[in-house]
Amino acid sequence: MNQSCIGVILAQIGTPDAPSAKAVRPYLKRFLSDRRIIDYHPLLWQPLLRGIILRTRPRRSAKLYQEIWMEEGSPLLVHSRAQQAALQALLGSSYQVELGLAYSTPGMAEAFRKLEASGVTRIIVLPLFPQYSSTTTASVYEAASFAALGRHSRYGQVSKRFVPALRFVEAYHDAPGYIAAMQSLLQRQIRAMSEEPDYYVLSFHGIPRRYAETGDPYPQQCQETGRLLAEAMGWTPERWQLSFQSRFGPETWVGPSTADTLKELHGRGIRRPLIFSPGLVTDCLETLHELAVEGRELFAMGGGNAEMLEVAPCLNDTEEWISFLAERVDCSAQGWLSSAE
Predict the structure, then answer these.
(1) In this structure, are 202 and 128 located in the same domain?
(2) Are 186 and 164 within one domain?
(3) How far apart are CA 7 and CA 2, in angstroms?
(4) Which residue from 45, 166, 196, 244 lies 20 to 30 Å from 56 (Cα-Cα)?
(5) Are residues 263 and 298 in the same domain?
(6) What DSSP assignment string belongs to 8-44?
(7) Count helices and strands in the chain by DSSP H and E runs
(8) At 254, which CATH number?
(9) Per residue in 138-165, is it b (16+ CB within 10 Å) or e — as a string?
(10) Do the Cβ atoms of 218 and 131 come closer than 8 Å?
């Protein structure tokens, strides 16, 4: 056993292996079969998923992925690997950093196998979700727990005898370092523009309203993140707002909708808006296409000039963000780190 090294798993949701319907279909099947994502009873949901959604949506999604796919691969995976490398370099040899995706490769089980093969017995799971949600944070907590236990469910077959010690990093939606990292990114973005934006939209991934009404604190944490970021940026209330994107299915979701907001901006006299997604820290389909491509189309539908909508990048592997993650890891390693050294 390697008592001198602490394992760190950067936890993300996942991404298809390729921008094709064949690759998107199994990813969507795993993702949309998780009852933390869609909590309908399987007897009702699975026939709809398998009979309709997985027959049509993979082709549509693949076309969107093709528009944003990078030479090195999926944007989410490319940027996540950069985050992993930067965090490893900053933390040094006292830690071994791996990437673990809940619904695709490299999977959570693979991350645990790599760490355990190196003799690591103490592991910190760091979700790349600043705001807690049962659909994201809890999903990776669950995936990590089962991977650590060596089984696929509570009553599934056990595939290993030794279970490493785990620590989970809690939500950090109001952490000063997180707010400061976003502030620095946005200030750089604004300085690079020829003219300062006249309005700011902070777009978060949405969840069904029913989830919030039954205990998910996500919307409240998004509101607090937005308030703190606006305060740090010096925005007055009339210069910014929150919205929620990526609606799916017939249920009512938390709002206001990002799509509706973008279509309404021009009619409110806004000409040079900037949109940024504080809850998505790694550029992916939801930012590179839903905001940067579809978002500009929606702004234009409302009468705006699509080219005047500025879309800020995610935190990705910016220095301030990686430094903040390193601080979170060091804080979580208290007691372990002293014994490792």
Answers:
(1) no
(2) no
(3) 10
(4) 244
(5) yes
(6) EEEEE----SSSSHHHHHHHHHHHHH-TTTS-S-HHH
(7) 14, 8
(8) 3.40.50.1400
(9) bbbbebbbbbbbbeeeeeeeeeeeeebe
(10) yes
Would the CA dihedral through 81, 11, 208, 262 be positive or negative?
Answer: negative
Q: At 246, give phi and psi (nearest 5°).
A: 65, 40
Domain count for the chain: 2
Q: What does the block give as tokens for 121?
A: 């017995």
- Using the structure block, give the residue that is written with the tokens 């199994």: 26
What the block records as the tokens of 322 is 């990686």
Residue 64: which domain range?
6-172+319-340
Shared-domain flag, residues 293 and 330: no
Provide CB contacts within 8 A for 281, sequence distance 6+. 128, 129, 130, 314, 315, 316, 321
Determine the pLDDT at residue 168. 98
User: Parallel, antiparallel, or unpaired for β 199-205 and 273-276?
Assistant: parallel
Check whether the bond before 313 is cis (ω within 30° of 0): no
CB 319, CB 50: distance < 8 Å? no
* Whether residues 84 and 217 fall in one domain: no
Residue 283 sits in the same domain as residue 324:
no
Per DSSP, the three-state class of 309 is: coil
pLDDT at 157: 77
What's the mean per-residue pLDDT of the chain? 95
336 and 231 within one domain: no
Q: Which two tokens stand for residue 211?
A: 């989830």
Name the pTM for this structure.
0.95
Contact 167, 124 (CB under 8 A): yes
The pLDDT, as a whole number, for residue 158 is 77
C-alpha pair distances (Å), 162 with each of 1, 117, 158, 286: 11, 12, 10, 38
Alpha-carbon distance of 138 to 209, in angstroms, equals: 17
What's the CA gap between 237 and 247, in Å, rounded?
26
Name residues of the chain where pLDDT drops below 70.
1-3, 154-155, 338-341
pLDDT at 192: 96
For 311, phi and psi rounded to 5 degrees? Answer: -115, 115
Q: What is the C-alpha R_g of the chain?
A: 20
| Whole-angstrom distance, CA of residue 275 vs CA of residue 291 | 8
Reported in sequence order, the residue ranges of 64-134 that DSSP labels E, i.e. its strands, are 95-101, 122-127
